[in-house]
Amino acid sequence: LVTFPKAEGDRVGDYVLDVNDSLAITARLSSGALATIMASRYATGHGNDLSLALHGTKGAIKVETDGKVSRLSACLGDDVDQHRWRTLTPPDVKHNAQRFADALDTGRNGDPSFRRAAEMQKLIDAALESSATKLPVSIA
Prior knowledge:
Elements: E1 2-3, E2 11-12, E3 15-16, E4 23-28, E5 34-39, E6 50-56, E7 59-65, E8 70-76, H1 79-82, E9 86-88, H2 96-106, H3 114-133
């Protein structure tokens, strides 16, 4: 885990960068595959965009959103050898406010849940420990 500042003075124009959410992580998955994760809420050229790309031996998939428009694309099957990406229709996703209202209305936790948040915190803690000790940390 490595964190890095996004901008001099922790500002982008008038916007104050109030958290250090820029990071790079190298991880080994249970399958033995190598994972690299880069995250930054305000990367160069992107204002609060989110993107996720997964690449494997059988293909790749990518989802991107700027909060208004979501894009989904994949490079699978015969397209892999041609390096051809196809645009897919992303599924409809409820906004957080609607998901929260639904949880209040039904009395049921939505997804992700507090349990999922606790699981994610274990991953974050392991990344911080690995960074501090410069050793791999296994997660059960």
